[in-house]
Amino acid sequence: MASRFDGQLRWLHKVRLYPTCAQERALVAMLRATRELYNALLMQRRDAWTTRRVSVPSRDQYAQLTELREAEPRFACVYRECEDAVLHRLDLGFAAFFRRLKRGETPGYPRFKRAARWNQLEFSHGNRALKFDTLQGRVRIPGAGAVRLRKGRTVPEFGRAFLVTKNGRWYAVFEAHRAPSPLPTTGCRVGIDRGIRVLAALSDGTTIENLRSGSRRRAVVERHQRSLDTATRKDAAGHVLNRRDPVRVAASRRLSRAKEREANARRDWLHKASGEIVGRYDRIALEALNLRGMARSTRGTTEKPGTNVAQKAGLNRSILDAGFGMLASLIREKAAYAARMVIEVNARYTSQTCAACGRVCKESRKGPRFVCVRCGHAADADVNAAQVILLRAESPPKRAPGTARGRQHGAA
Ligand SMILES: [Zn+2]
Fold it and tell me: Is 11 in a helix, a strand, or coil?
């Protein structure tokens, strides 16, 4: 089936909304109704199965939804498509559940949603439901009226749309599409590996730091964490006693906002770094996605710098890994848009492999430095690993890099 978006890439536009108090109440009521609906649909399916061993088809629930809307005004005042999207979301949840069951895994049954975990309304044909005024200063939301938008970039023609709330703020997310726009070729190529002490290392010798981990923003987060701890009273078992205490709620919200700002700053930083990489190189070699878990388990256990690494280093490691994962996915996204080539390679043992002679040996790693035990090639350990990634992309190894695995594990 040909779509009008063939060959185009998904492009999300997130715009802050400024609802009035009445509009916000309407939006919150819509969230509550859709969440209630989701839980009711789920309960119907679960009970039908546990008591009578029958499954409730989606189309039956769709028909019942029509009846429910006639009977219950609080469901009728929600835009019908949002409720259909809830049913669809439940279908997707069950499809994933059965798929994993079939594969012999032990999946979790779809769960009932708490209010804290239910924060978006989906409009599958958002362009039909949400209408801008001429200057895109307001967007008309069915059931909530014309809500003021943040001024800024113009939202292009869009399809699906979401209304999302986070930390007490509302956003509209519009899903648009755009055709790739290839960047001029540079004739340069690069290998990128997750670093041990830095976020990522490039084969050209440069490294990408994690955004100033000891920064002012971090200090703000820690300060808000302390005031939340001060405002929290717990019983002996560690349960919070004053969860709804206004002072505690306010402190908790301030902490969430500070964390959000920190995450935004980090994301901006990664956007910038990934944009520069995609601009500079035609061919970008990265560790393959499907091997990530495997690569991490070997590298995380046997390749940490030093032998007695404290728990704290483990936490720092996982923060760096999360950052690298985001950097890599931004690179993939931007590369697809710019028609750059991303080559996926097996990243196992890159930090123990010599970029000059190819010898794999644990002893070549000397903390932050790499000194090959065979040929004496010396380099920054992270940069050496990135060069190995590039080499593997250009000429896949004849011998699988994992053949020395048993010995490597024995040595660790
Ligand atoms: Zn060597």
Answer: strand
Average pLDDT, integer, range 379-403? 79
- Does residue 5 contact residue 177 with C-beta atoms inside 8 Å? yes
pLDDT tens for residues 120-174? Answer: 999 999 999 999 998 899 999 999 999 999 988 789 999 999 999 998 899 999 9
Question: What per-residue confidence (pLDDT) applies to 368?
Answer: 87
| In contact, 270 and 331? CB cutoff 8 Å | no
Residue whose structure tokens are 């002893």: 363
Assigned token pair, 325 = 């994962």
DSSP 59: H
Report the alpha-carbon distance of residue 245 to residue 242 in Å, rounded: 5
Q: How far is the CA of 297 from the centre of ligand 1 (A)?
A: 25
Distance between CA atoms of 289 and 192, rounded to whole angstroms?
13
For ligand 1, the distance from its centroid to the CA atom of residue 383, given in whole angstroms, is 14
Query: Quick one: tokens of 327?
Result: 């950097």
**Residue 331 in this model has a pLDDT that exceeds 90:** yes
**Tens digits of per-residue pLDDT, 46-97?**
999 999 999 999 999 999 999 999 999 999 999 999 999 999 999 999 999 9
Q: Packing angle between helix 58-71 and helix 21-52, nearest 10 degrees?
A: 130
Residues in contact with 207: Cβ distance below 8 Å, sequence separation at least 6, in sequence order:
195, 198, 199, 200, 201, 380, 382, 383
**pTM for the whole thing?**
0.76
Report DSSP state, residue 363.
G
The predicted-structure confidence for 160-188, as pLDDT tens digits, reads as follows 999 999 988 999 999 999 888 999 999 99
Is it the case that residue 412 has pLDDT exceeding 50? no
Q: Residue written as tokens 């505690």?
A: 248
Q: 208 alpha carbon to ligand 1 midpoint, in Å? A: 25
Q: At how many degrees (to 10) do helices 80-102 and 21-52 cross?
A: 40
Task: For residue 321, report the distance from its CA to the centre of ligand 1, in Å.
Answer: 27
Query: What are the sequence ranges of the domains in the chain?
Result: 9-178, 189-411
Q: Residue 150: which of 141, 158, 142, 139 has the closest Cα?
A: 139
- In angstroms, the CA 78 to CA 64 distance is 15
- For tokens 């050496």, what's the residue? 384
Report strand pairing: 9-18 vs 131-132: unpaired
Q: Are 170 and 24 in contact (CB under 8 A)?
A: yes
How far apart are the CA of 203 and the centre of ligand 1, in A?
A: 16
The larger pLDDT score, comparing residue 195 to residue 2, is at: 195
